């Protein structure tokens, strides 16, 4: 869970567009956990996964939701819901 004081907006929002990433999502979000504990907002936007991606992501992200498939639409939806003044779009397989 984020340690950001209640009522304050994050400076950075990391938006991760995903599709059928059940094999990678937990490791990707675990790598971001130290940032989340420092107040960074983590948003996962699913494009219609047919696997457990959403369920696995909900354990370690601040916001998880689905939109119709399409990388651009996923990124735009994440940006619209982000609270941070800085947006970072990160793919699940980025190391």
CATH class category: Alpha Beta
Structural class: alpha/beta
**Residues in helices, as a percent range:** 25-40%
CATH topology: Spore Coat Polysaccharide Biosynthesis Protein SpsA, Chain A
Overall tally of domains: 1
Poorly predicted sequence stretches spanning 5 or more consecutive residues: none
> Terminal Cα separation, in Å?
22 Å
- Describe the main β-sheet briefly: 4 strands, parallel
**What's the mean pLDDT score?**
92
Secondary structure tally: strands: 4
Description:
This protein has one domain (about 10-90): Spore Coat Polysaccharide Biosynthesis Protein SpsA, Chain A (Alpha-Beta Complex). The chain has about 100 residues and is of the alpha/beta class. It contains 3 helices and 4 strands, in the order βαβαβαβ. The chain starts with 11 loop residues before the first strand and ends in a 6-residue tail after the last strand. The longest helix has 13 residues, at about 25-35. Helices cover about 30% and strands about 20% of the residues. The protein has a 4-stranded parallel beta sheet with strand order 3-2-1-4, sandwiched between helices.
